[in-house]
Amino acid sequence: TSSPVLVCALRGIDAFRALGAALQGWTQSRDRLSTGDSLPQALMALTPEVTFRQAILFFTEADLVTGKAQHTKLTQICFSPVVGESWRCRAESLFSFLQAGAQLLCTVLLIKPGLWSQGLPRILRDLHLEKFCVVGMKHLELGVAAAASLLPSELQQDAAAVEAHCAYLTSGTALVLCLQRPNAVKKLLDLLGPEDPQLAQALNPCLWRAQYGTSTVQNGFYGSRSYAMAVQDVKLFFPEGLCCAQGQPVQEQEV
To answer: What is the pTM of this model?
Structure first.
């Protein structure tokens, strides 16, 4: 109480882990500089529940700023699918957002040709154990353009690699799943592991690409690499909509 403190409300993807890692690195650097108490100390809330309690203790809604707009609401705008209807918006209190907890998100898993017909029962069992809900499923034959769009941007600069990946992806029928759960995009990527099955095997033999993949081309799976890409993948593979997804419609998630 002898000197002022700075209190910040921060928001971001995987916020608790990311901030914890940043503070740990900062603390180590600080300790190397000095063993005294003259350098600043830092504390963070460790759970969403503690975050909510501390937020309402230190801040009012008028204190909070979201995004680029200087206002206190989370605003989402979408175009109504009904022809002739105007734009609509929905505002959500940041405190209500914190209190509600993790939102259900969708991501896309594409099981590449030659794998899904043999491994599907085990894959679906593992998805169930990881608390994923399947809200869309279809088998399809990819065209070259759709196959190329699934490749990482850095790989698309290599013509030979693009040709090899597209040849494999278009060689047979693929199975596409739309999956839903909290933090779905990151959770699926964590399950799949690195694109290279050998690297995945070295990291953890239980990773899916370690179990099912044989090469960087025939690595078993494609998973949406970010939330923004997941929204685009859902639009690409399920333009007709999803059977039983909860949460925001795709049009709202785009914004």
So the answer is: 0.64
